[in-house]
Amino acid sequence: MQHKWYNATEIEVGSNSKQIFYMETIEVSRLSALAFFAAGESKYKGKRNYWQNREKTFTLVGLGHAYTIENNASDARFDLVEHEWKKLTSQIIEEDQHLQPILFGGFTFDPQNEVSAEWTNFPQSYFTVATHQLVIRNDKAYVTINYITDEENSATTFEALRKERDELIHAAQVKEVKTYAKPTMTSYMEPYKQEYLNSINKVTSLIKANEAQKVVIARSLALQFKETITSPQILSHVVHEQPESYLFGLEHGDLLFYGASPERLVKVDNGRAYSSCVAGSIKRGPTAEADEELGRTLLSDLKNLGEHHYVVEMITDTFKKNCSKVKVPHGPKLLKIRDIQHLYTPVEGQLNEDATILQLVKHLHPTPALGGVPREQAMEIIRTYEPMNRGLYAAPIGWLDADGNGEFAVAIRSAALVQDKAYLYAGGGIVEDSEAQSEYEETLVKFRPMLRALGGQLHE
Ligand SMILES: C=C(O[C@H]1C=CC=C(C(=O)O)[C@@H]1O)C(=O)O
Ligand SMILES: [Mg+2]
């Protein structure tokens, strides 16, 4: 017998409008999350999302938008999202933990950046509850319909959504399980390459003059393809090629933002909070021995230890303000992923009564692994010397539920896909003794995962 949970609650949305929040969850036999995402291609393209944690113990796919929380506020955006989410979820009578709407989305890197380009029209906070929500947790798969309406004939519409759900599951189990070809690239551009190299020299001199201690400077690649690339096509390659990272995809109209990040911003699980300091990098070696040697070099390299130290200091401070019993190991370990090794220090603590995951996101973002030290000076330097808009690159992306649990990654090793064009982003932490050429080479290594997924040449 198929397990099924159902709930309908009258709620108030916005000011005074009475609506009904219908929810139904069924347990399904385990299916490919990617195939479920692909099954939404004709009906829900532009309104889908994909998420997997690093351990692959939690997968979330959303098709369609049952509820959207977005705003263009600057500093207030975190509080606004939190307030609206709390208002919505506090009204739902939770009959069972299987009836849990999940909010998925992200906050842009810097609401004060005014360069538009590929990020035109993208809200500074963009979160949605999916109409069809797939959750795979502890080897069990659940599909939830979320439907909020004030329609008279809502029962008929809900019945139609049930049919649609069954078709989506069927398609995911049977039709959409396929392999995708790599796209054909027709041009590879490094916009503002010289400006980027100059900016590293400029920023190191600003640091020497004590204007800041550390600033993360990024750049982009602009790629053109022969044909339009679909979201399932690119995600399938990323998912298969970068299994050791957070995997994410978020559609907004014509744009798909996707990536494979090694870096957790924050996770909250039952009142316990976790973050990770990931900063300081070196390439992988061609042999196990060479790789180990590079790892040892990284662990004792003063420039990289410097980059790392600022991050540990800031995340630890933020945790001490929001948590008790904060635990931080003494020195960094190595975090090895396919193309690169990083210095890595995990931080954890017991969340204070009044602290929440979104409050932690607000205080942590941007950590010095993405912004710099001091934060405001670094942000001003980034606005002045980076001729692009990061959009969601290096920004918090993730999910939360009504109980306060959730997880956000830092959206690095990422790209924006707009039909037949892709924009890849990568940066690095600039400190006093950074050198332009080696920072440039570090970004080439960091571009690799997204470039490989797109079938690109690894220009080196
Ligand atoms: C900003 C990026 O990486 C950050 C995370 C890990 C290591 C970093 C570094 O060594 O510079 C960066 O701080 C990026 O990948 O675009
Ligand atoms: Mg670096």
Automatic annotation (TrEMBL):
List the keywords (alphabetical).
Isomerase
Keyword Cell inner membrane recorded: no
Keyword Isomerase among UniProt keywords:
yes
Domain Chorismate-utilising enzyme C-terminal per the UniProt entry, residue ranges: 193-446
Tell me where on the tree of life, at the top rank, the source sits: Bacteria
Reaction catalyzed:
chorismate = isochorismate
Which Enzyme Commission numbers does its entry carry? 5.4.4.2
- Where does the sequence pass through the membrane? none
Mind telling me which PANTHER family this protein's record contains?
Answer: ISOCHORISMATE SYNTHASE ENTC (PTHR42839), ISOCHORISMATE SYNTHASE MENF (PTHR42839:SF1)
Q: Which family does it belong to?
A: Belongs to the isochorismate synthase family.
**What name goes with this protein?**
isochorismate synthase
Q: Which lineage do the record's taxonomy fields give for this organism? A: Bacteria, Bacillati, Bacillota, Bacilli, Bacillales
